[in-house]
């Protein structure tokens, strides 16, 4: 894979240092071009840089048109991710001493001092990952897809590097998506605006909480909605499954109210159930992405759906320090899956506990 080298200013000499940048904020604007499986993307915000060489990662197909730090233009050259022979010695040493390099382009620049800087980058990239061979089962929910733009829909995750990434753990994310007018988008956090002009639609999103990444999904959905007190409940389903939406809306509204009464106010302005064209079972801030094969399973509404709603408190607004274990998954299972069995009967709860132990022995 290729990496991109951006040079800013003069060389600092043999004592130059090298380190990844830290992004504090992203304001991402992207325009999807479905026929070419590509997107034109602009990202801007605040980034922390250090004295010497700095770098960050970008999608390996990216073609950068403009890049600037504090308004200063950069010149570029490319290098392969895992063939670092053309990189500056200090950068090469740092990359070799770190974790395994991702399949992504590397953008590097020099800074005369450490500071918080404004950045802006404009580029295009192709996202055309094959999703046809993904299957769903208990043992394997599905191969992790990083990013793809197809007629069925577009899915962009952090592992596709559709936005630049450094060593940051948490950042502020705003996303504006320019999509076909017949499509709808869903992204982390709250919908700020949605406008349609001609054959294009523009939708803007912002996560009110800093997060460790950002996922965007867009597709030719048939939207439907209801409310739970002040929270909007939305289904983004494909036409073939619109008959399932009323039950999902009703159940989701009930879960939001139940957990709001139990824990506190729902952390976002809406909860969205989005259907995917390949198998997934993900919970993101303010929404869940369920594959079509999952959406159609009859038990999802009475089990997994409530689990995903509860994750908006535990995991998507109250975060986990994974160095100390994944307590939020245990708490979410206890507050959702197990509680539903307790409400059913003591015998059902006991059977659930036994099944969990059997699954642990079988799969862990």
From TrEMBL:
SUPFAM superfamilies, from UniProt?
Metalloproteases ('zincins'), catalytic domain
Q: Where is the signal peptide?
A: 1-18
User: Which InterPro entries does the entry link to?
Assistant: Peptidase_M4/M1_CTD_sf
The record's listing under Gene3D superfamilies reads: Neutral Protease Domain 2 (1.10.390.10)
User: What keywords does the record list, in alphabetical order?
Assistant: Signal
The protein here is known as: Peptidase M1 membrane alanine aminopeptidase domain-containing protein
């Amino acid at each position: 894979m290729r990496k991109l080298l951006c040079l800013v200013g003069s060389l600092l000499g043999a004592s130059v240092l090298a380190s990844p940048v830290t992004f504090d904020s992203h304001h991402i604007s992207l325009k999807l071009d479905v026929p070419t499986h590509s997107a034109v993307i602009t990202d801007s915000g605040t980034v922390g840089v250090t004295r010497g060489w700095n770098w960050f990662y970008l999608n390996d197909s990216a073609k950068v048109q403009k890049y600037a730090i504090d308004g200063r233009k950069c010149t570029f050259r490319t290098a392969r991710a895992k063939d670092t022979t053309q990189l500056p010695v200090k950068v090469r040493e740092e990359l070799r001493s770190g974790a395994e390099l991702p399949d992504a382009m590397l953008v590097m620049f020099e800074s005369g001092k450490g500071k918080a800087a404004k950045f802006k980058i404009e580029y295009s990239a192709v996202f055309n990952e094959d999703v046809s061979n993904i299957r769903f089962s208990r043992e394997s929910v599905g191969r992790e897809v990083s990013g793809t733009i197809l007629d069925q829909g577009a899915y962009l995750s952090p592992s596709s590097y559709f936005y630049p990434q450094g060593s940051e753990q948490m950042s502020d994310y705003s996303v504006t998506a320019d999509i076909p007018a017949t499509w709808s988008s869903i992204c982390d956090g709250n919908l700020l605006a949605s406008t349609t002009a001609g054959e294009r639609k523009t939708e803007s999103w912002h996560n009110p909480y800093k997060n460790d990444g950002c996922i965007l999904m867009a597709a030719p959905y048939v939207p439907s909605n209801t409310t739970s007190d002040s929270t909007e409940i939305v289904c983004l389903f494909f036409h073939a499954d619109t008959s399932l939406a009323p039950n999902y809306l009703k159940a989701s509204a009930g879960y939001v109210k139940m957990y709001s009464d139990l824990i506190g106010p729902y952390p976002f302005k809406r909860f969205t159930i989005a259907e995917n064209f390949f198998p997934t079972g993900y919970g993101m801030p303010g929404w869940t992405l369920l594959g079509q094969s999952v959406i159609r399973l009859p038990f999802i509404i009475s089990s997994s759906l409530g689990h995903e709603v509860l994750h908006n408190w535990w995991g998507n607004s109250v975060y986990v320090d994974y160095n100390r274990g994944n307590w939020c998954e245990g708490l979410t299972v206890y507050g959702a899956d197990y509680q539903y069995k307790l409400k059913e009967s003591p015998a059902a709860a006991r059977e659930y506990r036994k099944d969990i132990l059997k699954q642990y022995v079988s799969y862990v």
